[in-house]
Amino acid sequence: MGKKLEKAPKEKIDRGHSGTEEDSSKSTGLNILEKSAVQSIEDYQCTGNLEADFPELCALVGMREIPPVTLRPRTGVTPTTDRSILDNSQSQLDGGGPPPAERFSCLKPRLQVELEGDDPRSVREVRVRGWKVGEQMARVFSRSLPNLSNLQSLHLWRVGLTQRTLTSLRNTLSLCLSLRTVLLEGTPIPEQCYHILIAEDSMLAHLSLRNNQIDEEGARLVGQALSTPRSANKSLLSLNLAFNRIGDTGAQHIAQGLRLNRTLLCLSLAHNHIGDPGASGLAQV
């Protein structure tokens, strides 16, 4: 009888432990579910604050190195800043100044933004300079940029796009209702599919495609995007094609596209190896 009495409390204790373990496992399971509620980039609800949304989206697509979001430095030099620049330059000549890691921090990838005011949700301009925008970053942009209700300008310089990522970017830009200016420069694409940015349904008013190695085939596609007997772009006001390889034949393709286009007001074809035949074709438009 004594042994039975001793075993009974142990069984109760064991049952108590098992119940506690079950409860803890259930609570742990709930915590895991709560933490994994946002499992993919599609589940993330953007707030419109790029500084907060951008790193979260980058983490969700599996990026290890996430470019910081920084305010773009304002241009213009005041007497005070001019003096500080001279002092910093002199200190660097004297062997002072910041260490090399800080001195070259400006070369690291970063997402530069310009705000309309003090509200972090008032981003009006986004700049990407000198780092590749791959498929992961294109997915991040597809979620973050359309939620910037005040975004008016996007600057991309030497971003290493491919036909696939440019197509993704184009689809993203079509969702940015306030966006009117895009600069895509220093980014050669073998397929030369830049014309998709000025399709008939494009809302862009200003587009710069400088220094993209666009040749006569790319110019032909751009000319067809400007106008054909069946369709025409009705929103683009200025187009910058300077510093490409358009040549005389490409210039004639552009001229053909201008014939039925009644919207474009400004076109730059500087430094494109265009001679008299190409110039003559443009003059006849």
Secondary-structure blueprint:
Elements: H1 2-35, H2 50-60, E1 69-71, H3 79-93, H4 100-103, E2 111-115, E3 123-129, H5 135-144, E4 153-157, H6 163-173, E5 181-185, E6 206-208, H7 216-226, E7 238-240, H8 247-258, E8 266-268, H9 276-283
Helix pairs in contact: 2-5, 5-6, 7-8, 8-9
Entry summary:
With 285 residues, the chain is of the alpha/beta class.
What would your notes on this structure say?
- The chain has 285 residues and is an alpha/beta fold.
- Among the domains are: 46-71 and 107-181, no CATH class; 188-284, Leucine-rich repeat, LRR (right-handed beta-alpha superhelix) (Alpha-Beta Horseshoe), CATH 3.80.10.10.
- The chain is 41% helix and 12% strand.
- It has helices spanning 2-35, 50-60, 79-93, 100-103, 135-144, 163-173, 216-226, 247-258, 276-283; strands at residues 69-71, 111-115, 123-129, 153-157, 181-185, 206-208, 238-240, 266-268.
- An 8-stranded mixed beta sheet has the order 1-2-3-4-5-6-7-8.
- α2 (50-60) crosses α5, α5 (135-144) runs parallel beside α6 (163-173) and α7 packs parallel to α8.
- The radius of gyration is 28 Å and the shape is elongated.
- Mean pLDDT is 83; it is low at 1-5, 7-22, 24-36 and 76-82.
